[in-house]
Amino acid sequence: MARPKSAAPKTFTIAPVSEAPRDVAADAGYEHADTVCHVLHAGLRDGRCCATRPRSRRASGPGGHLREVSPFRSLGRLLKSVAVVLLGAFLCGPAFAAVQRPNVLFIIADDLTATALSCYGNTVCRTPNLDRLAARGMRFTRAFCNATYCGPSRASFMSGYYPHATGVLGYTSPRPQIGDRATWSQHFKHAGYHAVRVSKIFHMGVPGGVEVDNDGADDPASWTEKFNSPGPEWKAKGDGETLEGNPDGKRPVVGGNTFVVVEAEGDDLVHSDGKTAAKAVALIGELAGRPQPFFLAVGFVRPHVPFVAPAGYFEAFKPYEKMALPPKRPGAWDSIPKAGINYKTSANMKMDERRQKKAVGGYYGAVTYMDAQVGKVLDALERSGQVDNTIVIFTSDHGYHLGEHDFWAKVSLREESAKVPLIIAAPGKRPGVSDALVELIDLYPTTARLCGLEVPARLQGKDIGPLLDDPRRRVRDTAFCVAPSSKGFLLRDDRWAFIQYAEDASAGVELYDLHADPRQFINLAQSPAHAATVAAWKGRLAEMLAAVRRNDLAP
To answer: What is the pTM of this model?
Structure first.
């Protein structure tokens, strides 16, 4: 196991069992060296500590006869003994009794835009459970995914490498590229954590993978245990309608990556996310009673299409005609390259205004269902008594368009698709709001540092832990995100969002002044007044890609 580099602020660095404290204690002749070491490794859950006492040791003398050896036969040994006694006294004291490595509860939604959450300002879609998590955690307003669709995004934050470092630009596991290097959860597993996956963490097809109950692009080495949550998805009994590619209303409810709303019969447990929450609740109850810390990754598949949930979750958004569509600017597509027009639009989906409004209401219904399942998991954590010793993280794999620019779904590199909700509630940290630029790839090094684990130097993310103490700080100047299917790259700072298609920019560029144009209506890339700005950003992007490719994976 790796030795922690330094103690986290206001906590104790916990040494693995196999390292020096055990050797010192045993060498000094202490009978309960394993006990001392175990306390160092995992802390005490019940406030008790076994006393240590010196004992005689037996060693082989001449001719193989046993002889008694005093543990205090030398000054050096005496000093070691005194040190261990003092250490034991400290470990048995009240200051250490409740100290242990924090658990990690990682909760991730699928295809969730931050703009759908009430803690991020939505006044129509209420998410009370995420609101209460945000009320006790740090809510990040400018968190970005590292790829704008599921496969490369999840492979990136789980491996600790950017997509263009591993070359995982599709829907595969990063394991062939990273070899025996530890993924995020595997790093915790190697440090003695019980690492568990429930449902979708690495890529898993939705709805297809949920219907047939498979592991998708999961990485078995990352987990101590893993559980899937099959569900009926678009086949659920209830009132369903296909909104996409159905202008005459004759198309039945279908599967695949299709905008479908199903107001389903039955309760929460009929569906995948209800089963995921129930399993997570059971696991928290089980794992909380163990001395071993846990890394529990809980993946919810909503609000990914189909927008399916028990019928009651849709009532707040009916009639769907009352749903508001985002403001649009006539001719907004005229100044952007073809590669910048998203793969799903109101036009190519053949969705009229009625269907667009129902799509928004259906999405909100799926979000409120997901929020209710998050609430069950948070309740279980509170009942377990581990809430004050657990780092809770909530996010999504990427954002989502709900009609902005007449775009729908993911892939686009505009703010709605590239930004993600991110809430981190950590023991001993005050709640707050941070406007700092952060990325999902930062979660691996941040949690490792917070838990007193070694932070591998190879990781390409940054430790954003300092922001939990001071949200006004900054850890990075830019955020970097990619859309491999369109060969798109986003690099943005506090003011500018620069988007380039193809590494040589041959498929076009976009430039937005986020201070003057936060909705990104006006592409300034072709403006002569901004030619120098565009040239500078092209250079910065080239430097970023070169830095990403300088890594220990290179042959």
So the answer is: 0.84
Secondary structure class of 485 (helix, strand, coil):
helix
Count of domains forming the chain: 3
Q: Running DSSP on this structure, what letter comes out for residue 104?
A: E
Asked if 229 contacts 199 with a C-beta cutoff of 8 angstroms, the reply is yes
Helix (H) or strand (E) holding 150: helix 150-159
Tell how many helices (H) and how many strands (E) occur in the chain. 16, 19
Query: Which residues constitute the domain of residue 282?
Result: 103-230+271-301+365-477
**Residue 279 CB neighbour total at 10 angstroms:** 18
Last residue of a domain, one of 444, 477, 510: 477
Cis check: omega of the bond before 303, within 30 degrees of 0: yes
Q: How far is CA 12 from CA 15, 41, 101, 193, 537, in A?
A: 9, 11, 9, 17, 43
Kindly tell me the sign of the dihedral angle through the C-alpha atoms of 135, 420, 521, 346.
negative
pLDDT tens column, 166-221: 999 999 999 999 999 999 999 999 999 999 999 999 999 999 999 998 999 999 99
Domain boundary residue, one of 448, 477, 506: 477
Q: Sign of the C-alpha dihedral, residues 229, 232, 233, 237?
A: negative
Identify whether residues 464 and 398 lie together within a single domain: yes
SS3 (DSSP) at 210: helix
3-class SS at 504?
A: coil
